[in-house]
Amino acid sequence: MDKPESLRRRTAPIDLTADQFRSMGHTLVDQIAELLETIRRRPVSPGEHPDDVRRYLGSAEPLPENGSEPEKILSDAFDLLTEHSVYNGHPRFWGYITSSPAPLGMLADLLAAGVNANVGGWPLAPMATEIEAQTVRWIADLIGYPTDCGGLLVSGGTLANFVGFLAARAAIADRDLRTLGMGGDHPPYTIYTSEGCHTWIYKAADQYGFGTDAIRWIPTNPTQCMNIEKLDEAIRRDIEKGCKPMMAIGAAGTVSTGAVDALPEIARICKKYGMWFHVDGAYGGFAAAVAGEGSDLLGLTQADSVAVDPHKWLYAPLEAGCALVRTPELLRDAFSYHPPYYRFDVEATNYFDLGPQNSRGFRALKVWMTLKQVGRSGYRQMIGDDCRLARALYDILNDHPVIERVTHALSITTFRYIPADLREQASSEPVASYLNKLNEEIQVRIENDGEMFVSNAVLEGNYLLRMCIVNFRTTLADIDAIPEIVERVGGEVDRALRPTVLTA
Ligand SMILES: *Cc1c(COP(=O)(O)O)cnc(C)c1O
Q1: Is 200 in the pocket of ligand 1 (CB under 6 A)?
Q2: Handedness of CA 192, 196, 198, 199 (dihedral sign)
Q3: pTM score, two decimals?
Q4: Residue 380: is it exposed, middle or buried by C-beta count within 10 angstroms (0-12/13-18/19+)?
């Protein structure tokens, strides 16, 4: 039977000619270069209502039946995104823990997509697999973890923590939970972490069937670090009740205030009770590269597993997280299956065997390339500078009577605005509640104005402004500008808000 001519000389509507690709690519790279050049002069955030953003997009438009010009699509997408996005690459972006992206990392992502290596199996991605393995070793080396550990790149800190969690389960469980599941009449496994732990632990306990009741929230000291005596007590109590303590999680920098738990102490307790010691270093793990002798951070080298987040302090563009597990075989114990349709050589690394994903993108490339560009010394310098700038802010705030500085750790500083005439009554009602409302409004106003971007923390019931510098573009001049902005916006919001909320 004759094949139709359209299959003989196939033209797929998705393809671009080499000339088209070249020309569109050059234009895009020029536009992104211009964006980087002018980023400081742009608003940090557009401060738009979701309805406006949907209108600009035309979000009600139906799926196109037929295609259209790729040149125009790319140029429209560039405009939509650059006019209606929050720029975490802006020197005054200090919200949450989202870093400015490394320019070389942007190009790396383009290259990774160009080759489109599937780093699930070695035969599909020989060089990419080896680059990922080297990246994992270099990351371990950077934070002082054994370089013969197991590990892999995942989407972010949450997934990296999940990998540690599942390795713990594989190592500690006294029955084959992967096969049997969590059902049956068995003593419950328990998990210990401080009140400052990130929400990933809820997700892990929930999604892997332990239930969030398995989490023991250990109270913190006034420095927001886990109270070690309380940890020991809680474990002892649970053992007496017949529970099975599975793991303790130490924070190498909590998400709210950057507090670093007494990691060597948690390691000691885990050893004492035969528990798994996991460190959540998604934020602060890389600060171990700059930590001095005697720092609690260095205790992460004793952990059975560590989660770090290259899309935070290694400045990788989203997404890139990394899980490290001291005993490499445990990753296989936690994840591997061998279906008949995968006949991959076991001599080589096949990452589908070592983690939750099957097909995997080449996240490691952007991390590997920037590690080469910057080196250990460059990261030491940049992470150290971020911490010094946060410290500088903490010092500067001391000279401003309407700003109360609250905490400083790693590169996070928290503070709040307190109008001079309310200072005396700040901790009594109704002023305390008013100050919470006031600072929440200040944060929203600052965010909408686009002058800078901070997020918040709640500490002892107080709503605080929180700035976290994971930003290699921030300078001392940017820090110096903060008190004036907070005082100005704070005064304006207070004048508008107080009469409606606080009737003295
Ligand atoms: C950011 C963060 C996480 C979550 O990481 P994602 O990359 O957002 O998934 C977990 N723990 C800590 C301490 C973090 O700072």
Answers
A1: yes
A2: positive
A3: 0.96
A4: middle
